[in-house]
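In these records, each integer encodes one residue's backbone shape. Here is one protein:

___
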Amino acid sequence: MTRDNLRKRHIIKPLDCVYCLEQESRSHLFFKCIVARHLWVPVENFFSIQIGSSFESVARFWIANKKCSVLNTVSSAVLWCLWKYRNAMIFSNTSWISVPQVLRLIRNTVRNWAILSSESDKDKL
């Protein structure tokens, strides 16, 4: 991850998750962290699916691209916003406020990405 690469350059940042202070890994950050789990719940409820706890569980919907294009956009936004907000906390000293704050970031990202979608998907997004 980014901090591992910084360590190689002798720029030391802690390897703890900025959200929950457990050991950070890709899997932890995107799926197992308490913040990530709270962000996936509304997605799972809205789409009536189970995301699971791995990239493979998200990627299985990417394979059926046209059929799941709205879900793919939303799941990509969740992954992107978790990463983006984490980096803002690490590198820009952004303060943590709440899960709803990150949900708003995800919503705004989906709205911005909707302009790239088909007309039928825009309505759903």
Q: What stands out?
A: The radius of gyration is 15 Å. Residues 69-91 form the longest helix (23 residues).
